[in-house]
Amino acid sequence: MSTTNPLLQKPKRRISTGIVVVIVLVLALAAGVGVQYYRGHSKVEVSSPGQTEPAVITGPGTSGKGVTVGKAGAKVNIELYLDFRCPHCAEFEKDSGATIDKLVEDGTATLTYWPLKFVNPDASARLANAFAAAAANGKALSFADNLYADFSKSWTSGQLTDLGTQLGIGDAKYQQALQDNTYGDWLDSVSKAADDRGVTETPTVYVNGKQLPTDQLTADGLQKAVDAIAS
Amino acid sequence: MKFWFPWVSLIARLVLGGVMLVAGALKVTDPETAAQAVRAYDLLPSALVAPIGWGLPFLEIAIGLLLVVGFGVRATAAAAGVFMIVFIAAVSSAWARGLSIDCGCFGGGGQVAPGQTKYLQEILRDIGLLVLAGWLWLNPVSKFAVVSEPQGVTAS
């Protein structure tokens, strides 16, 4: 290399670009922190107010049993193993949520939620407990829909409280359940039941006890599986 | 310095910067997925998983932008090189431990079916990008950069 070797050059006078680069990277991290703050403090807006809320047939708290909603006596039972911090579950909800809600609403199917808590050891458990608290107050479906509808939210305790209030279930009992992790034991029993059944990932869907193949985890696939039984 | 070095550096800047920009942009909108992708490597204590998953995309975007516009190329290339070394080490470690995960480099990530892993391609791609970063460290002077550096060296 000749004297133009850049390794031998020294920047003169002005601030070295290297320092500017470091500053830019620090600013980028600051932007990340800002976004993170926003995720934990952004306002809660109920995605579909006035949605028909299916009745809770089996509430949370029965060891080894999921939360079932819908009209008792429906011919079809859809079982959904979900995790509130599982990205694929959010995608599945986006794709098939409306289909499921409709099947439940028109009495074709009941829906059983099996909330698991393995994706994010901290947040999944917290959200699953909040879901159970909401289900105990009769708002299982819209609570779950709202958690997925704004999946990028952190869903801090404050945001969960807001959501509860907006759904009309934010009473002292709900608050207490959030604080005390009231449904922790029940969630353990749900996780154990899922293990025993061989459920290893979320979302996993069963239609009348038969597992929906992974490539059928779509609105169409689910509708077909339900139609095959209901018709 | 050969006359075509600045052109090679331009291409290296655009490829490395472009890849990092895209990789960051695809992940930045989905922090939970990014955190989950980091968690799947099973390398970090749980308290660090989420901040790294959330912060990494922002750094990738910043590095990508700096490279694409051509500012502080040497320092930025060094940062990109460090990232690539970390990525290669992480993917190799996942491979060596027999995990079945997607690298989550461009969003997604997490568990995949055994046999669906692409460790070799992921590592080769990152080695290629590391080579580009190394080239830019040695030859930071490039065409069409907002700041031609180091000072005193002209791209001729």
UniProtKB/TrEMBL annotation, chain A:
- Determine if Membrane is one of this entry's keywords: yes
Q: Where is this region: Disordered?
A: 45-64
Which ranges carry the Thioredoxin-like fold domain? 63-228
A single Gene Ontology molecular function, please?
A: isomerase activity
| A Pfam family | Thioredoxin_4
Q: Which SUPFAM superfamilies does the entry link to?
A: Thioredoxin-like (SSF52833)
Q: Which UniProt keywords apply?
A: Isomerase, Membrane, Transmembrane, Transmembrane helix
CDD domains linked: DsbA_family
Protein name, please? Protein-disulfide isomerase
Membrane-spanning segments: 15-38
Signal peptide per UniProt: none
**InterPro entries named among the record's database cross-references:** Thiol_disulfide_DsbA (IPR050824), Thioredoxin-like_fold (IPR012336), Thioredoxin-like_sf (IPR036249)
Automatic annotation (TrEMBL), chain B:
Membrane topology listed for this record: Multi-pass membrane protein
Name a biological process GO annotation: methylamine metabolic process
Record GO cellular component, one term:
membrane
Indicate the segments forming the Methylamine utilisation protein MauE domain, all copies.
Answer: 7-138
Q: What is its main location?
A: membrane
> Per the UniProt record, which residue ranges are transmembrane?
7-26, 46-69, 76-96
Q: Where does this polypeptide localize?
A: Membrane
Q: Which UniProt keywords apply?
A: Membrane, Transmembrane, Transmembrane helix
Q: Does the keyword Membrane apply?
A: yes
Q: What is this protein called?
A: Methylamine utilization protein MauE
